[in-house]
Design a protein that fits this description.
- The complex is a heterodimer of chains A (517) and B (334).
- Chain A is α/β, with parallel strands linked by helices and 517 residues long.
- In chain A, 33% of the residues lie in helices and 25% in strands.
- Chain A is built from 18 helices and 24 strands.
- In chain A, the strands form 6 sheets. A 6-stranded mixed sheet of chain A has the order 6-9-10-3-11-12, sandwiched between helices. A 6-stranded mixed sheet of chain A has the order 18-21-22-15-23-24, with helices on both faces.
- Chain A is elongated and about 80 Å long.
- Chain A starts with 10 loop residues before the first strand and ends with a helix.
- Chain B has a single domain, classed as ABC transporter involved in vitamin B12 uptake, BtuC, CATH 1.10.3470.
- In chain B, 74% of the residues lie in helices and 1% in strands.
- Chain B is built from 14 helices and 2 strands, in the order H-H-H-H-H-H-E-H-H-H-H-H-E-H-H-H.
- In chain B, strands 1-2 form a two-stranded antiparallel ribbon.
- In chain B, helix 3 packs parallel to helix 8.
- The chains are: A alpha/beta (517), B mainly alpha (334).
Chain lengths: 517, 334
């Protein structure tokens, strides 16, 4: 396809003012997306910004409440992803499921076999598979089992299968998250092929460098709205990150959080340190120190490896590289119980999935990590349990009808307090808080932030992961910025501001260190 | 899109309105039991006799004992299909030991003691094997226990060459036939096991861990609970319960047929647990509920038989009751 004189291809897809509510709660408030033919279009935004919902509306998985979708100039409405594919919109998901023991042809033609006299017409199918693969410049023996080929080729086959012949628009949802660098290169060459044939691509990814490498245009979403749409080359990384997080890089003032003033004099010696931690693709090289009485903040975009690092520290996953020390001694936990024995606690970001035990009461949830300490010869000491539970309900202001209320009946903020209490009851030395204020109301948020500060002032070391920039900047005494699984920058609280943190998140180095180098 | 938490006041209002399904799923079994007794008192001849009580209790004992182990397994979110086969193994092994077929033992008391201990322990070890598959290799419980469900009865048949073993050994058979204080021995055994398990589930560290693992395995792991050990333990206990039930069955029958001992027991036990109100997905369990569940199923069967309905039809009613109990659970949760 040759480029028209004005440099712009006609619009292929236009989504205007899309609205979608789930149970009355808006997931998409005013979302728009325009994609031209032969364009690679990045769609980015934080978790919950509405990217997936928008795509699911497009592919017929969800039905929109309001708005307009035009595809090739015609109103477009489908009711299932399959129907969308028939109409030229294919989606490729993160995990690609193929059958390695069957031939390439079988994999490609699975579900759309050609028949002749009621029997499978293998010759026709082999021919079709070859023709399809030749589009992507792959010449392989399609009769051989797929598993005999290398991963990159299998990847291409998977994409070829998904795209088929008729795709006009291909949606790739975080396609690179499970690929290594070489495979990413292969994927990008496929994208260039598609582009050369006039096929458009919507590319969803959190990896900024990739976006700049392969995308022409970008649409940024936040809180269910499209906040910005621009040509990739006209928008800088910093601007991109700022738009995603809803920060105005220039103007930030006042206190947005309830952490209050910190008492730096109370910060002690290094208690925990990690050097060169690594595990798979998610964590590649993370080093940091945590001092007694200090709040260390982990900043970074989604997928930067913050939670994964925390899980390594807590023994929930095992590192493949690096060393850790706790209170001067080598520390390598095999399971969370080891970390707990070393005096650590871990408040998960996934409150529902791995935090609360919904069918259990407030008391039972609160004492879950404490059980060995409140039992004698294996028998639970009810009075001691009641005493501890009532103390924490009072101290943390947990709103519940009593210790025996089911924890699932509590609000998110109060559930979070129960989880905090679960770890505080252990009297930990180091507490890892992963998104401690996510999904809870403003009042509870302030209370939890004040509590974290008070605990640190009492000598607790806190490792706080947060996607809210002001929480990290105002709350932490020291900020570590992670980017693509690497701890790229360390900032002292006094020296930190939003611009520096955003810059580190976007470029991998902070503004200050750029000046010095 | 993350689900926004409903406000506290909202939830409170919901909780205050009367929850019919919640009420039924909590007390449904008791209500059913009371209705059944009332029906029988009115319509079944000679119902209010000690004999009726004895017949029903002795018949339900083995189901209840197995259901106790099953309740613990289900509380962790698992299931144990192998209990019937483990009963057959223990039932085949015990006579071989006390009749001196494996090695001659001089004293019959020593022989019986060895028979009881060894056969129950073997069943417990096979239960541990189930737990090992589930905990170590993360095999789905239904598949892991299917292994011994199929192989177990085969092993029992190979051990006995498929022969019926008959015996008349009062030193052994007290477990199914003796009546101290005019109460059948197996009823006393059942009562002790039920009481111990109910207490353990409510009051001990172990019981709390079982419910935590079933309620949220990931959270339990992160809270430092040794999830694998808990799983091993519950399957082991389920095996021990099945082994003991196997002994009672052969003691009552004065014979052991590897083809028949414990046949279909896994389904009776699961049914008792389900009807009793234990959550089949784990995390919420009641031992007393399982006892009541077993009694209900038993009484339904008795009622139908005593009023001339054939056993085959009684099975259909039994299935209906199970379906109803599970449906009530779903309504309550949904």
């Amino acid at each position: 396809m040759t480029r028209p004189p004005d440099g712009l291809f006609p619009l292929l897809l236009e989504m205007r003012d899309i609205q979608k509510r789930f149970a009355g709660i808006p997931a998409l408030a005013d979302a728009s997306l325009s994609v031209r033919s032969g364009e690679v279009h990045a769609l980015i935004g934080q978790n919950g910004a509405g990217k997936s919902t928008l795509i699911k509306v497009l592919t017929g998985y969800h039905r929109k409440d309001a708005g307009q979708v035009l595809f090739e100039g015609e109103p477009f409405e489908v009711h299932s992803p399959h129907q969308a594919q028939v109409n030229g919109i294919s989606t490729i998901y993160q995990e690609i499921n193929l059958v390695p023991l069957r031939s390439v042809t079988e994999n490609i033609c699975l579900g759309r076999e050609q028949r002749r006299y009621g029997l499978l017409d293998w010759n026709a199918m082999h021919a079709e598979a070859e023709r399809l693969l030749s589009r992507f410049a792959i010449g392989i023996d399609v009769r051989r089992p797929l598993g005999e080929f290398n991963t990159a080729t299998q990847q291409m086959v998977a994409i070829a299968r998904a795209i088929g012949f008729s795709a006009r628009l291909v949606i790739m949802d975080e396609p690179t998250s499970s690929l290594d660098e070489r495979e990413v290169g292969v994927l990008f060459s496929v994208i260039h092929q598609l582009k050369a044939e006039g096929v458009s691509v919507i590319f969803v990814s959190h990896k900024l460098d990739e976006l700049y490498e392969v995308c022409d245009q970008v649409t940024i979403m936040r809180d269910g709205r499209t906040v910005r749409s621009a040509a990739m080359k006209e928008i800088g990384k910093l601007e991109l990150v700022a738009a995603m997080l809803g920060r105005d890089v220039a103007a930030v003032e006042g206190h947005a959080t309830a952490f209050g003033e910190r008492d730096r004099s109370r910060i002690g010696d290094v208690m925990f340190s990690a050097r060169g931690l690594g595990a798979g693709q998610a964590v590649r090289n993370v080093s940091f120190d945590l001092r007694r009485g200090e709040i260390a903040g982990f900043a970074g975009l989604l997928g930067a490896g913050r939670t994964e690092t925390a899980r390594l520290v807590f023994g929930a996953d095992r590192p493949s590289a690096g060393q850790m020390t706790m209170e001067g001694a080598a520390y390598h936990p095999d399971r969370p119980a080891d970390a707990i024995a070393a005096g650590m606690g871990f408040c998960t970001e996934d409150r529902k999935g791995e935090g609360i035990v919904p069918e259990m009461t407030v008391a039972e949830n609160l004492t879950l990590a404490l059980l060995p300490k409140i039992s004698r010869n294996g028998v639970l000491d009810d009075s001691r349990q009641r005493e501890i539970v009532e103390r924490f309900i009072r101290e943390l202001g947990i709103k519940c009808s009593g210790p025996n209320q089911k924890v699932r009946e509590l609000s998110g903020g109060n559930q979070q307090k129960v989880l905090l209490a679960r770890w505080l009851a252990m009297n930990p030395k180091l507490l890892i808080l992963d998104e401690p204020t996510r999904g809870i109301d403003v009042g509870a948020k302030g209370e939890i932030q004040r509590l974290i500060r008070r605990l640190a002032d009492q000598g607790l070391g806190v490792l706080m992961i947060s996607s809210e920039l002001e929480e990290v900047i105002e709350g932490a005494d020291r900020i570590f910025v992670l980017r693509d699984g690497v701890s790229v920058t360390e900032l002292e609280a006094e020296a930190a501001n939003e611009e520096k943190v955003l810059t580190a998140m976007a470029h991998g180095t902070s503004a200050s260190s750029e000046v010095t180098t | 899109m993350t689900e926004l938490p409903r406000s506290y006041a909202d939830r409170d209002a919901v909780a205050r309105t009367f929850d019919l399904f919640g009420f039924l799923s909590r007390y449904g079994t008791v209500i059913a039991l009371v209705l059944l007794v009332a029906f029988n008192l009115a319509f079944t001849r000679n119902f209010a006799t000690m004999q009726t009580l004895n017949v029903n209790l002795t018949q339900v004992c083995t189901i209840v004992i197995v259901a106790v182990g099953m309740t613990l397994v289900i509380a962790t979110g698992g299931i144990d299909l192998s209990v019937g086969s483990l009963m057959a193994i223990s039932g085949a092994l015990a006579p071989m030991i006390f009749m001196g077929k494996i090695l001659p033992i001089g004293s019959i008391y020593l022989g019986v003691a060895a028979a009881m201990i060894v056969s129950v322990l073997v069943a417990g070890l096979l239960g541990l094997f189930n737990g090992w598959l589930v905990a170590r290799f993360r095999v789905q419980p239904i598949v892991a226990t299917l292994v011994l469900f199929i192989a177990g009865r085969g092993i029992a048949q190979v051990m006995t060459n498929g022969n019926l073993q008959t015996f008349r050994v009062p030193e052994f058979q007290w477990i199914g036939l003796a009546r101290p204080l005019d109460i059948p021995a197996q009823v006393i055994i059942m009562a002790v096991i039920v009481a111990a398990a109910a207490w353990a589930l409510k009051k001990t560290l172990f019981g709390r861990c079982i419910l935590a693992v079933g309620g949220n395995e990931k959270a339990s792991e992160l809270a430092g609970i040794a999830v694998s050990k808990i799983k091993l333990a519950v399957y082991g206990i389920s095996g021990l319960c099945a082994g003991l039930a196997g002994l009672i069955v052969i003691a009552i029958n004065s014979s052991s047929d590897a083809n028949l001992v414990g046949l279909g027991m896994e389904l009776d036990a699961i049914a008792a647990v389900a009807v009793g109100g234990t959550l089949l997905s784990g995390g919420k369990a009641t031992i007393i509920g399982s006892l009541l569940g077993a009694l209900t199923i038993q009484l339904v069967r008795y009622t139908l038989l005593a009023n001339g309905v054939p056993d085959a039809a009684a099975l259909v009613v039994k299935a209906g009751i199970i379906a109803l109990a599970v449906w009530l659970q779903q309504q309550h949760r949904g």
